[in-house]
Amino acid sequence: VFENMYALPIKKFTTKGRKKMFRNKSLRQQMIIVFMMMVMTYVAGTLLGNRMKTDSTYWQIFEFENPAFREFASFTIRQNENQISAILTNESEAEITTGTGFALALQTETDWRIFPFRGDVGFNDIAIILAPGDSTEFSLTEDMLSAKLIPGNYRIVTNIWGEDFGTTQVWAEFELSELDRH
Q1: What pLDDT score was predicted for residue 52?
Q2: How far is CA 110 from its chain centroid?
């Protein structure tokens, strides 16, 4: 298989060789252009990345299912100056299951968008079984988010599962006004 393979000759670069290389104006110009393009790409990516964190037009659109969950569970909001909590209560006659993870959605003029969490924020994938009447709490603090909350309508969204209805989305809606920000 390797019968006709020859090692490629490798030319050692000496100090003189490097000096000759940089005396060549066209090569030097090409290297400068490549370097400038790399710098511009980095700057553009950084600026766009920061904009994507704060500009909701770049965020993922969230499609909400029919709010049929209201016959199985209630999801209410409790808000204080440092934290927003959504309390999920099992209103059915049977157990329901949820997890610890949730999403935050912001209403825009045309749709709902997923408000991004910081890159180091994650949730343990733990099932929480709620007996009839039991509750669990989902807590949101501003330091979990990649951008500052702005006044508007929000939903904290998670999924529940029950033997009677399968898997469905549940959400608690709240409004954040400029007064709430201070």
Answers
A1: 47
A2: 20
